[in-house]
Design brief:
- The complex is a heterodimer of chains A (about 350) and B (about 240).
- With about 350 residues, chain A is α+β, with helices and mostly antiparallel strands.
- Chain A has eleven helices and 20 strands.
- Chain A has a six-stranded mixed sheet with strand order 6-7-8-3-9-10, sandwiched between helices.
- In chain A, helix 5 runs parallel beside helix 6.
- In chain A, about 40% of the residues are buried.
- The model of chain A has no long low-confidence stretch (mean pLDDT about 90).
- Chain B is mostly helical.
- Chain B has a single domain, classed as MetI-like (MetI-like fold, Orthogonal Bundle).
- Chain B contains eleven helices and no strands.
- The longest helix of chain B has about 35 residues.
- Classes of the chains: A alpha+beta (about 350), B mainly alpha (about 240).
């Protein structure tokens, strides 16, 4: 694994509104895309401002590229010159797109010739050629943000700080642009600190994910780990796990934990547990398999097969979401084709199966 | 109607025959208000910019002073300057009373807060994230200020227009500190007042028309500069 380029420890920033940002430990690996997710007002943007030294911290440590950047003697401008920031709103100055693109180089006194190749690459990849002579005011929001991202990438930063740059772009443009942009980031190996409140976006683009709520970092880890093995209910809800069931560990055998969640209902999960301990079981909706009749269940290897009744069918983008009453509420994603094939409707009785290895307890 | 017609006719005669007295009044008006607006610009724009861009203790009080200054009655400004430069006043020894210099000072006192106030409001309208973006791109304090100034450039031109409009048309202050002395401190507004007092309405109308043409011409120039700025989007290659 690559080296950690950014390490934040015990960082605190208190605001007069009473909000406190308190990050115990957060880190980013070189060349990775790290995504920090959290709801609005959770302190995500504040963290970017602190890393870029646009805000001063009350206490703590930020080690970036081997240097303690909160040191009062540090040359802040030199540190900022190793980074680039793109804000949520496109921040383009009152000059042509071309001049805006080159502004960072000019301010950092970098010779344009050294970056000519990079500029040509970005202009081509992001299709900026026709926009160059125009005023930023004549561009759409998406085009403006494209220019901001190109301007930041042109600087070849050691870390690119992105504060929800795609939040104000319409869905269609956003998806198209996201693909191209993150392809460029991967191609260039740019270490990226990305902020979003969109967990699906985080799921698609990230190597590493952090979840922040109310100014406190709840969990940090590889994407799969955070999305599949949340450490608490807050994180679970934030990463899209709706099925959270309280229970008591009844038995632990051969790495399989049996959790009693209600009258004669047990859920089996692969993992560790202590008999009698209160736990929460989390099941991702995409891990649930719907079975139409009881005969088919006999051929399944999974320990978790629940009989239930469909209470609600909801549209969630490409899928439908079923809310199933199995003695506990279970959410499951299913395609339209499967709904039609199985003839599912509200009050249909079905079976739901979940592999023990897909179930997480905390 | 005949009076107005006579006035207009007289104005054109005075303008096109190059009446020496009127020409002298016109040139003095341009000189006094021109110098005053340049000085006010040099004082007002940086003041409005610094107050608008920075957060510091006492900012609200300074802003309140500037806003009060924007509504300062010219007569009050004139009286204040007169008290300072009166023979027995603290600056009486300079002998500036009833001179174009005193008129310029009075007009600076009137125009500076107007220019500072409008600049301050214009800077306040700029998204504060521009400042952060400039700094994060690598701008030092001066570079950042310059970038933000360029964002407020067009409203600053409006501030100059408002400042100029405020002083070229005022009569109270220049009358008090200039004294409307023929051939020395008589400007278009004080001359027009003088003509009305003398019952020379046609001459007064002529002077007012000349004043209006002057105001229009200067505002036209500034507006054209402002519009040109808006349309200027050619590529400036790297220097």
């Amino acid at each position: 694994m690559a080296d950690k380029i950014l390490e934040i420890r015990n960082l605190k920033k208190h605001f007069s509104t009473g909000f406190l940002l308190n990050v115990d430990y957060l880190y980013t690996y070189e060349n990775d895309i790290f995504t920090l997710i959290g709801s609005n007002g959770s302190g995500k943007s504040t963290l970017i401002y602190l890393i870029n030294l646009l805000l001063s911290a009350d206490s703590g440590s930020i080690v970036f590229d081997g240097e303690e950047i909160l040191d009062k003697k540090i040359n802040q401008q030199k540190i900022r010159e190793k980074m680039a920031v793109v804000f949520q709103e496109p921040m383009l100055f009152n000059t042509s797109v071309y001049n805006n693109l080159l502004l960072g180089l000019k301010l950092r006194k970098i010779r344009f010739e050294e970056y000519k190749e990079n500029l040509d690459f970005l202009i081509e990849k992001l299709k900026l050629k026709n926009l160059l002579p125009r005023s930023p005011k004549t561009l759409s929001g998406g085009e403006q943000q494209k220019v901001c991202l190109a301007r930041a990438l042109l600087l070849n930063p050691k870390i690119l700080l992105l504060d929800e740059p795609l939040a104000n772009i319409d869905q269609e443009t956003r998806e198209e642009f996201r693909g191209v942009f993150f392809e460029i980031l991967k191609q260039k190996g740019t270490t990226t600190f990305y902020i979003t409140h969109d967990r699906n976006e985080a799921m698609i683009i990230s190597d590493f994910v952090g979840v922040i709520e109310n100014g406190i970092l709840q969990q940090i880890g590889p994407r799969e780990e955070v999305f599949r093995r949340p450490v608490n209910e807050r994180v679970a809800k934030f990463v899209g796990i709706e099925t959270l069931i309280s229970g008591i560990v009844g038995n632990v055998q051969n790495g399989v934990v049996k959790v009693n969640v209600g009258d004669n209902i047990s859920i089996y999960a692969v993992g560790e547990g202590i008999n009698g301990k209160k736990v929460t079981v989390s099941i991702r909706p995409e891990d649930v398999i719907i079975i139409g009749n009881s005969e088919e269940t006999t051929s399944l290897s999974t320990l978790n097969i629940f009989k239930g009744k469909i209470k609600e069918i909801k549209n969630v983008g490409l899928f439908k979401k079923l809310d199933i009453d199995c003695g506990f509420s279970l959410a499951a994603y299913i395609t339209d084709a499967s709904i039609n094939r199985l003839g599912l409707r509200i009050d249909s009785e079905i079976f739901a199966a979940v592999k023990a290895s897909a179930i997480h307890i905390f | 109607m005949e009076l107005i017609y006579e006035g207009i006719k007289k104005a054109f005669i005075l303008i096109f025959t190059g009446d020496k007295e009127i020409l002298g009044i016109l040139l003095l008006t341009i000189r006094v208000s021109g110098i005053a607006v340049i000085i006010s610009m040099l004082l007002g724009i940086p003041l409005g910019f610094v107050v608008g861009l920075n957060h510091f203790r006492g900012k609200r009080i300074i802003t309140a002073f500037i806003n009060t200054g924007m509504g300062l009655p010219p007569v009050a400004a004139g009286l204040f300057i007169a008290l300072l430069f009166w023979r027995s006043g603290p600056f009486g020894f300079m002998g500036l009373m009833y001179t174009p210099t005193a008129m310029i000072i009075a007009q600076v006192v009137i125009a500076s807060p107007i220019i500072a106030g409008i600049t301050l409001a214009a800077v306040g309208q700029i998204n504060p994230k521009f400042k952060l973006q400039a700094v994060s791109l690598g701008a030092g304090r001066i570079q950042m200020s310059w970038l933000i100034f360029k964002e407020a450039k067009l409203p600053a031109l409006s501030a100059i227009m408002a400042g100029f409009g405020g002083i070229i048309s005022e009569v109270g202050a220049v009358m008090i500190v200039g004294g409307n002395i023929k051939g020395s401190t008589r400007v278009l507004t004080t001359a027009a007042v003088q003509m009305v007092r003398m019952g020379e309405f046609a001459s007064a109308i002529a002077l007012v028309i000349i004043l209006l043409i002057l105001v229009f011409a200067i505002n036209l120039i500034l507006t054209l500069i402002q519009q040109k700025e808006k349309e200027k989007w050619q590529i400036k290659y790297w220097k």
